[in-house]
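Hi V.,

You were right to ask for the full record rather than a summary. Here it is.
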Amino acid sequence: MPTAPTGASPLHKGLIVPTHTRIRPFNTKKAYPEQKLDNDVCMAVRAGSTVYLRGQTAMDLDGNIIGVGDAAAQAENAMACAKVLLEEAGAQLEDVVKIVIYITDRAYREPVYRVVGAWLKGVYPVSTGIIVQGLAKPEYLMEIDIIAEITAERA
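Predicted structure:
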């Protein structure tokens, strides 16, 4: 039987069928040139009907940093990027089931949560908030991880 590459699983009678799709793959050398990194990652992965997003921050989808010093503006950018990535994976904001919000100062909780709450009004995901000492770039004040589950009708 052939060996299944990463992201694929063997299926009946030796066929290999992909089990997930990588969306917007990139290498960290480009995103973080000031750091000595060389990791192959992507912005989103769709595994069956589940979508996992890379943590969204102040960095927009073109690599620009938005809202330096403004946690609410960074949250707005993060959620706008998340919406685009979810849609590229075949999901919608309404499909979000879990979020984890990281902030670098307790003072950012209200402005960040207000923005995220507006984007996810009526969705009711489970949510965890964590205060951290720092994020990948010193300009980042917040980051949000998102998991979505596409409904059976659209999966």
